[in-house]
Amino acid sequence: MKYLPIDSSLFVKNRHDFMAQMKPNSLAVFNSNDIYPVSADSTLPFEQHRDIFFLSGVDQEESILVVFPDCPKKHLREVLFLRETNEHIAVWEGEKLTKEKAFETSGVKTVYWLQDLEKVLAEMMALADTVYINTNEHYRAKIETETREARFTKWLLNKYPAHSVAKSNPILQRLRSVKDQIELDLIQKACNITEKGFRRILGFVKPDVWEYEIEAEFAHEFLRNRSKGFAYTPIIASGSNANVLHYIENNQQCKAGDLILLDVGAEYANYASDMSRTIPVSGRFTDRQKEVYNAVNRVKNEATKLLVPGAIWADYHVEVGKLMTSELLGLGLLDKADVQNEDPNWPAYKKYFMHGTSHHMGLDTHDYGLLHEPMQANMVFTVEPGIYIPDEGFGIRLEDDVVIQEKGEPFNLMRNIPIEAEEIEEIMNQS
Q1: If I label 3, which of 67, 105, 131, 186 is the partner at 20 to 30 A Cα–Cα?
Q2: Which residues make Cβ contacts (< 8 Å) with residue 396, sequence separation at least 6?
Q3: What are the pLDDT digits (tens) for 372-417?
Q4: Contact 275, 253 (CB under 8 A)
Q5: Cα gap 424→281, rounded to integer Å
Q6: Residue 95 contacts by C-beta under 8 Å, 6 or more apart in sequence?
Q7: Greatest extent of the chain over all pairs of C-alpha atoms, in Å
């Protein structure tokens, strides 16, 4: 791994918190992700299943974690199963976890090789009444590929049909949404790497540069700072491309006078950052561009203040809509009649700001979190309002990542990343 070792106390605590919410005499199983094939012998880069990482810190394929807090055999209360490593594997594929290294990483004392899985699991299942399966129930999930976790669940329930079945996901949604300080430090590291990338491109952008060249500058800076790269597919959208919300082609030339919307974030140790900035190709905003830019920034600043313990996500978005409506009236994009006659299910402001303002962030860019439940301290949210004006050939989005505090305004993990229009112009015009 490129990242520095993570204190195993994080994973010990996460398992403890998960097991505290399990039913009596139950066990739960968590699988690594597959390595997905491309074609021939090519594969996609491995990405660990975030749940087994959250609970163990294990960051390699073909790994399984089983937790059984009430097991009468104490050595089977936490068990890791790993692919057996040897000198041949080390030569051809690189170093894999030994049993000793797995304990050092996870704090799990009992480690078996995968060939022992069925035998040991049979011993554990004979002592358990309930088995927790791990399904993806994220509100944005759209799963078309059968995962390793899903295949294992199918096998497990077929082999042990008499056990009661429970779901791990509701527990994980709540646990993962509230961050430990170690996690906040890792997300801050990811944000700091994103800052380095952004400052790099502020000195790089000029008329006629290509969007993919900007993407390459970010990638260079991310990799040289121990990141695997982008936390999500980057958006480098110049001119009217910014009005396509998920524009990822990044293949157009940036023209003088245009704006570039950058939605980019580095990952670090599997934790995400998620930043949006909008900058002028020529190093200076026009008066109209700056007018809209400052309106978006004001909405972002005011919306941030609304992220407090007890707030409900849906109510929060209603309030942000009111803030945006006021700014759009001031910009002349809406008039009073538009607002008076608006459809409550699709308010007038949605013509220019059609997406949500905030989502949970952490191990996933759109992280776990139950949106119908009140916000809590140490949840991390994005704040990302935008105004998109196809008729004027530009769109502006600004986004920071913030941590909800027990009292007062959230703590901005991107507080050091330039955002004020004048500061961006100043940096871009340094000789």
Answers
A1: 67
A2: 242, 259, 261, 278, 289, 292, 293, 296, 386, 387, 388
A3: 999 999 999 999 999 999 999 999 999 999 999 999 999 999 999 9
A4: no
A5: 11
A6: 85
A7: 74
